[in-house]
Amino acid sequence: MPSTTRRAIITTAESLIQQTGKADVTLSQIATALGMTHAALYKHFRNKQALWEAVATRWFQREILDALPIYTSGSTHEQLHTWLWALVNAKKRTYQNNPQMFALNTQYLDNNPAALRRVLQPAYQNVDILLAYHDAHYERAEAVIAAFAIFMLPTFKETWLDDDYQDRFERTWQLIEPGL
């Protein structure tokens, strides 16, 4: 039951953000929507930060990571190139299509390096497997994804709509590909 309640809290929080069009939904609003007290939320999340990280993490996983297809045609480098292009475009799409959740993601994941690193673990693992690195902590895979930070971190979101977006991606790819 606690995991069911935890999921319901996360789902309700995200729904309220979508309904209100704002990322600043209060814990009291969430509790009221669920018919529980504000204090009851803390039985499932240690603090407000933990709740919002959980909401942002689930959204990031569903809207970005789970939306990425697995590419099996072409060379390993071609597969990685295609996957990275899909990854950066998934992040760009979320910025364009869901500004409220993008703002929440920015506040609780992108501005928190430890949380961002946790949420990116599946991406690191994917790159590690694809390139057969076999790094216990995905160090090289993390470096590959970090090279494309300008295409994923909200600080640079205004540049994602520039005409040279794909050209900049390709130049970055050309710089890192020999080191893979």
TrEMBL record:
<protein>
    <submittedName>
        <fullName>Transcriptional regulator [Lactobacillus ginsenosidimutans]</fullName>
    </submittedName>
</protein>
<dbReference type="InterPro" id="IPR009057">
    <property type="entry name" value="Homeodomain-like_sf"/>
</dbReference>
<dbReference type="GO" id="GO:0000976">
    <property type="term" value="F:transcription cis-regulatory region binding"/>
</dbReference>
<feature type="domain" description="HTH tetR-type">
    <location>
        <begin position="3"/>
        <end position="63"/>
    </location>
</feature>
<keyword id="KW-0238">DNA-binding</keyword>
<dbReference type="Pfam" id="PF00440">
    <property type="entry name" value="TetR_N"/>
</dbReference>
<dbReference type="GO" id="GO:0003700">
    <property type="term" value="F:DNA-binding transcription factor activity"/>
</dbReference>
<keyword id="KW-0804">Transcription</keyword>
<dbReference type="InterPro" id="IPR050109">
    <property type="entry name" value="HTH-type_TetR-like_transc_reg"/>
</dbReference>
<feature type="DNA-binding region" description="H-T-H motif">
    <location>
        <begin position="26"/>
        <end position="45"/>
    </location>
</feature>
<keyword id="KW-0805">Transcription regulation</keyword>
<dbReference type="InterPro" id="IPR001647">
    <property type="entry name" value="HTH_TetR"/>
</dbReference>
